[in-house]
Amino acid sequence: FSFAFQPAGVIFDSYATSTIAIAGISSVDNISLSSVTYEKLLSTINETGFNKIRADEKDYLITKEILEIQAQNQEEISVYDSAPAINAELESVIFKIEGVDVYNIDMLSEELSKYSPGDSITLNVLGEDEEDYDRDIVLGEHPLNENRAWLGIGFIDKKSSGVIGKIIDKISSFKKSNTYYHPKFDGISTFIYHLLWWIVLISISVALINMLPVGIFDGGRFFYLTALALTKSEKKAKKAFSFITRFILFLVYASLENQDYANAKKVIKSLKQRQLT
Known about the structure:
Blueprint: E1 5-11, E2 14-15, E3 17-21, E4 25-28, E5 31-32, H1 38-44, E6 51-55, E7 58-62, H2 64-68, E8 76-81, H3 84-87, E9 93-97, E10 100-101, H4 105-112, E11 120-126, E12 132-138, E13 140-142, E14 145-150, E15 153-155, H5 162-171, E16 179-183, H6 188-210, H7 218-231, H8 234-257, H9 259-270, E17 274-275
Antiparallel strand pairs: 1-9, 1-16, 2-15, 3-8, 4-5, 4-6, 6-7, 7-8, 9-10, 9-11, 11-12, 13-14, 15-17
Helix pairs in contact: 7-8
Transmembrane segments: 195-219
Subcellular location: Membrane
Main location: membrane
């Protein structure tokens, strides 16, 4: 991987967020509100775009989509801070700060620490056309330290859970989290990387699925022979085999049913990232 790719920039995951009390909201898009509830807030905000929320003498931003997936939160909600990055709709890949290369979170934080709130800096970022360009942005004041410059971006802890997740993390450990890599050889590097990664994932997935104790896989045969050896009864072994097969199929069905719920939880989690800069 290091032969074909080189670190080129930093990728941030989200704009900075905060958790606020719904009852503390005083206005939405400069329209004063009182005795705010979740239902009242939901009916007030616009369908599209960001809505400006005022709470506890501070400004925040939220979209209706993000508010809707927090329906279970009747007292507090997660919102975006009204920070320089989100107000400027800053791109998620940053290559340079004032001409200085930044390859990881530490380098990004170190460079930003050289500036003060109110300073205008030039960032080299990755545009929608996949080409880099320069743009100016005025740094804000950090909410926890008024003397510290603040861009208003956040990074999510990407450690996976579960056996498969840990295996994938181990395999991809050669790549640093939140680092943008640029191919040294245009076209060829990317093709070879995706081809090898696809082969690895397919091989692991096939091996794991094939060991499931379900009738159509080798794992089902292994389970049946193991049950037969332990019970010494073909009838009991077949019952155990039938039960475990149906149980696995039920788990697959249940996981598909809960997919939408899991996606909603993932969005909420992404709003609660650790904010470093």
